[in-house]
């Protein structure tokens, strides 16, 4: 069989991905095998592949490919999320660039533009995942706004409303003035910002006396309806029952009392603005205060803002401060740093706003979802995220599920009158009409009399049904797909959406299937650069995954990112930007290139390691492929080596399976790398390799190929393209014999003694090689060895790989020698006649001096009664082992000095 000198990833990846697709290896239908199901965390439909996606989807692909190779009917369902806020913002921006305002369009006209945008850009990220090698069942690709999934969202809303779990309420919400919608508490990101703390004078009505009130938001004074003091604050006891005058506004408002006010904090007097602060809203309700909303949906002052009407809230802040100062109503302004709520989607500063919204009661459906995680029915990896989940679930608030958007499932509430309760909820307008007739007792109501609620549902209200809706589980709760594939096996996601998505999917699954939606949740870390910064395009520190794949090949990138990915911890993906000549760029140069619009080119040491690993495997097969086969029996070296590697393989498979069970996937990769690089390439091939000019036994060659194939099966989930290429090169395969559907070897019993004996042999060989290297002895010059051991289990292997002419067992040499220990076994090599004995004596004395000093420090530690009594037993045991090793080595070196 012919194999090229170098592996070409670009050519190979395209070839095998096409082959896999053509043969429908990724597609799954219910059958007699046990199912293994993963649903993709649906990326935004307008998104493109970034480093976080690459990590998440590489892990999913590893899990699903491994499951196929372990006899499961693996199904990985891909799809995208309609991302209402992000997508609507992109469509609005596009329309604005064409001179069209959203407000000039009807809902239907706008949605037409939104669908055009989605159809044009919606498949980008899924196509990019194919470059990574993702083995998704593309025939099952879903979209949260497609009719089948949307109908299930509407069905769930109607059902929950009829159960009394969804209600319409007048509440304070988080208003995003840029997206023109409210957002949930979980979508608010608090960022520290530097601002001013303004101390305002609120004059006591009819006097020149004033109360000092501090605020960071003077623009909200137009909505003030009270000033609050603590009833136990003696400083203000004389002001109880009086009014103050709001600065600039000149409106009298009452001084009220509430123990909510901290006497020690600030001035001890709070301005109460119920329409623009959550805490003020609660106090306002408690004291029946009026509510004055002084900001419009763009966060500009409205008519309540008087002469500031129509102006931006932040511009007004400075102007108000100036006016207050001019009118002697500003005591002082101090620099002040505080945390400000911002929108996760747009970055805009959030404005608290009171409005009518739709809510889902969380306490009732939240309790079972907490229990299944605490009881480990749903297992979290790493387990530390259970505490995060528990804290949120125990402090859960009702979910605000309505958004003031057009892109999304429109809320199925239909109004037939102007009264607060003049609405009905139904899956469609025809059903709504019948319910409305019955509720209103108006028999001649027409469809034209009904008006559907203008809000859309929160995107998460569709994605919380995702593990069920992709299998049509709400429309057809007894269909073969949902019954077979649900519950899914594993979920791979980021901890940042543990509340948005993970918790809510568990709630929905228990509500509608009475089953958990998945058995395990693996939380990935955040991909950071070598300085620890989160990778982002705005910082210019994030490689484009597709550029890395083009440069290194998908396999190398997959291995690179997995090598840096410890379970649940943030990972540093070391990469550097280079210019066209290959020079590494400084931060200043990177920034300059960004400003100039020049493309970034990245190199990555991790991807280099991945590529080098692939090259080593490729070259290992090329070496095997070059051997001549001869009809001759296997020799003792080959028999011993094969026996050892078969046992080592079985042991490694058990360890790899254990790491996968713990979702320590990078550790599983490390074990596979060691098995291939060190054990197979480093020891096995060296041991069975025929001597120069000779051939290898056909029997040994066949066994070597079989072992290599088993290694390719283990590695395939991590490096699918390279392994398939080698698999198909080894022999001509039928379509049913492709590697990606081959079955991995199951773990079998192994003989620990055989493995331990070979480890002893490898240490002896390494010791002899070390002697040659340190003494400048040629590897071709054979040596004699003396040892106190009675025998070596792998004598022929040791002789071949260490180039030893004779091993003298249970014999001590009286010649000057190089001596080392393997456990308690002493190995001595008579020094070559070419060595300078004086120099050797000097080196030995130096080594002896160091060891004696080291032994004194260890003896001192072990003679310290406090250390021995208080240290962990295993720590003390380590020190005792150091002591014994040092004593043994000193004894050997002293003997060596005598002989010298």
Task: Summarize the structure in short.
With 900 residues, this protein is α/β, with parallel strands linked by helices.
Features:
single chain; 900 residues; alpha/beta; 44% helix; Valine--tRNA ligase
What this model shows, in words?
The protein is 44% helix and 18% strand. The chain is α/β, with parallel strands linked by helices and 900 residues long. Strands 7, 8, 9, 10, 11, 12 and 13 form a 7-stranded mixed sheet that branches. Strands 6-5-14-16 form a 4-stranded antiparallel sheet. A 4-stranded mixed sheet has the order 31-30-33-32, sandwiched between helices. Strand 22 (488-493), helix 15 and strand 23 (518-523) form a beta-alpha-beta unit. Helix 3 (84-97) packs across helix 4 (107-121), helix 20 (636-661) packs across helix 25 (795-802) and helix 22 packs antiparallel against helix 23 (720-730). The model has no long low-confidence stretch (mean pLDDT 89). A motif ('KMSKS' region) lies at residues 534-538.
Rg from Cα = 36 Å
Distance between the termini: 56 Å
Decide which structural class fits the backbone: alpha/beta
Mean pLDDT: 89
Residue stretches low in confidence (pLDDT < 50, at least 5 long) are none
Q: State the major sheet.
A: 7 strands, mixed
What is the percent of helical residues?
40-55%
Strand tally: 33
* Number of helices, counting only DSSP H or I runs of 4 residues or more: 28
Percent strand equals: 15-25%
